[in-house]
Amino acid sequence: MNRKWVQREAPAWVEKGIVTWEQAERIVRLYEDRKQGVGILPLLGSMLLALGILSFVAANWQEIPQLARLILLIAVMCGFYAGGEFLIRRGDSRLGIGLISLGVISFGGGIILVGQMFHLVAYNAASFLLWASAGALAVYLYRSRYLYLIALILFNAVQIYSLSSFGTFSYTGFVMMVVLLGFYGWNSRSTLLIWCFSLSVTAQCLMWTLSEDLPFMWMFIPAMALYALGDWFKERQGSYAMQAAPLVVAFLFGIFAVFASGEWILRELHEEILPRASFYLGALALLFIISLLGKYRRGALSGALEWVLLLPFVYLNAGVAVLYLLALFLFSLFVLWRGYAEGWSFKINLGTVLFIISSLVAYVKLTWDFMDKSLFFIVGGVLLIGLSWFLNRRNKRILKAAEEATRHE
């Protein structure tokens, strides 16, 4: 729990009569932002210590006998783990977690160095997968968000290494990440962890389509499965965190479809982008039904409008640019409307930014071919500045009116 979260939730507490407005302000003042900076220092110190040790060992590595190297690797790793456990038991959990993270890093470094020492040949990403598994084990042992992020990075490194070195997608690594870190993130109810997990899954869905030479749009099936799962979250924050990354990719694809629409996208990019319609549309429809049931269960059926970004306009022979442009505007206006309805300033600002981006996309698409380029940039700049000023002014008025109404109640 931090100051920003309390500030965001306080109006809802006042509205429900849990606390008065004065009591809510006193609660907010109990949370000082500067305390977070102190907690980060041990973690930064542990990173600098790791870099110092690595640079020292690397500079003298060739001069050390092989047996001494092996003993040194084991001693360093065990020293970090033992030191971290000792500090955690003494109550210094932040510095202890920092040392545990160094133990995880040194474990992976040891695997790589041992492979080099004995000239071991790797035929898959098993060594990186073992490293990532150690990171996931540390997460469950110490219940740390910092260790969770490290484990997430390691599982992404598994896929990058597997693709770059062997040209294959590690299904084992993907399943382990989803099961181990997905389960932990779901139970933690941490917005940060869920958001990072969603981003990693979406990125690996893209890696999957690239490695298997599948049409690009197949990535939306596992990505939107993650979105549909988010609709079964009870907490609003967790639901949005899980659904953010798939929606970002869908929004970016909509922008791409607006600019790339035309005969060439239907002919030259057909195989690279479009899956077979019967399989793809059937899977997408099934996910839409699952998502709709989750939204109905939460009483948030209006959120089904977010699926406008996934409508497969690209299968049409004409009007693709216009339809995707309308989808971008509808989605941005929906986010803006929900932000006003929920009194959530972040969502209002996000909807404003998306609406401005959609307006810029429409302006470029409609005027680039026939308008003088200098005039194009001048008029576009004036329009964006004016639109930004108008929307920000309107946002401030609405939020101020809502805050005053809450205080009077």
TrEMBL record:
Q: Which residues cross the membrane?
A: 38-61, 67-88, 95-115, 121-141, 146-163, 169-185, 192-210, 245-265, 277-293, 322-341, 348-368, 374-391
Q: Which UniProt keywords apply?
A: Membrane, Transmembrane, Transmembrane helix
Q: Which Pfam families match?
A: DUF2157
User: Source organism's superkingdom?
Assistant: Bacteria
InterPro entries per the UniProt record, alphabetical: DUF2157
Q: Where does the record place the DUF2157 domain?
A: 12-147
Q: Does the keyword RNA-binding apply?
A: no
User: Protein name, please?
Assistant: DUF2157 domain-containing protein
Q: Which organism is it from?
A: Paenibacillus filicis
